[in-house]
């Protein structure tokens, strides 16, 4: 995943915001991108309110719960999201089609381990569009899967007493039909 | 998708799991009640169920430019089907009205000549000739409840009571005197 910036976003100002990850990597991003991360926006707003004299260009925002790898991917996703939005400002339908296309391609390049990482990072950054997208992606990946598969997927173990689970399965036996093989 | 198997080195927080679950179809949710006790509690919680319904209603109304031309069709083989009418035939006599089937359900109980009322995915079915039973039916989870005999001549409707997050059956009987009766249904 490359960090190179694409053509400047028409809606953004030239302000840059610097983010520092838990593994001490520094990312300089457009303000429009950083403002999509509500946690960063909040930090930025608080900082501005508390210290009016500090110049925005020097603001460095530490992200102790985010590593550089997922952040780089989220920044790329965010840039693309803003770009698609700007290109189709007057056509919502077109925007949705472009976004769907991009998201499909995006998922082809994401490894399963990355998906959890990305969800945790998007959740910490409170990046709503990405979180919604990843939740949809996980939902569509598991919807036809077995209970056992889902346990593995989420790192869970059954904590039902013997017999309890069987009873639940019997009650809605039809919902266990037509399930994909693990 | 088998590569997804070893996904979890870290557990996802509960609110994220909640969000993922709201995006699953009903059949998957019913199956995933068996994943763990915590999933069971989440999936069967009325707050979750309401959120799931609202999210899916919203998604539907956004995606299909809902122009209220849906209809409910019934055939004699105890099947019920929801459909959308294509075009309205206005002004052009050559234009025939067609419809596209959206979903189809097998009615799991026996009623001849019945009436239907529906609300938030729940159906209220009742016969008005010989069979005077009232059935409250949720096709998504394939479950129904049966209520005692209705009055000989009556009409009924199903309503959602948002304050209690429950459904109410409103029953109006025509004789001997005008009766207004409310029945609470636990669903």
TrEMBL record, chain A:
GO biological process assignments: jasmonic acid mediated signaling pathway; protein ubiquitination; ubiquitin-dependent protein catabolic process
Gene3D superfamilies: Potassium Channel Kv1.1, Chain A
Pathway where this protein functions: Protein modification; protein ubiquitination
Residues in SKP1 component dimerisation domain copies: 131-174
Keywords, comma-separated and alphabetical: Ubl conjugation pathway
Pfam families: Skp1, Skp1_POZ
Role noted for this protein: Involved in ubiquitination and subsequent proteasomal degradation of target proteins. Together with CUL1, RBX1 and a F-box protein, it forms a SCF E3 ubiquitin ligase complex. The functional specificity of this complex depends on the type of F-box protein. In the SCF complex, it serves as an adapter that links the F-box protein to CUL1.
Recorded family membership: Belongs to the SKP1 family.
UniProt name for this protein: SKP1-like protein
Source organism (scientific name): Castanea mollissima
UniProtKB/TrEMBL annotation, chain B:
Signal peptide per UniProt: none
Top-level taxon of origin: Eukaryota
InterPro entries listed in its UniProt record: F-box-like_dom_sf (IPR036047), F-box_dom (IPR001810), SCF_F-box_component (IPR050796)
SUPFAM superfamilies assigned to the protein according to its UniProt record, in alphabetical order: F-box domain
Domain F-box positions: 6-52
Pfam families (UniProt xref): F-box
Name recorded for this polypeptide: F-box domain-containing protein
Organism: Castanea mollissima (Chinese chestnut)
High-level lineage: Eukaryota, Viridiplantae, Streptophyta, Embryophyta, Tracheophyta
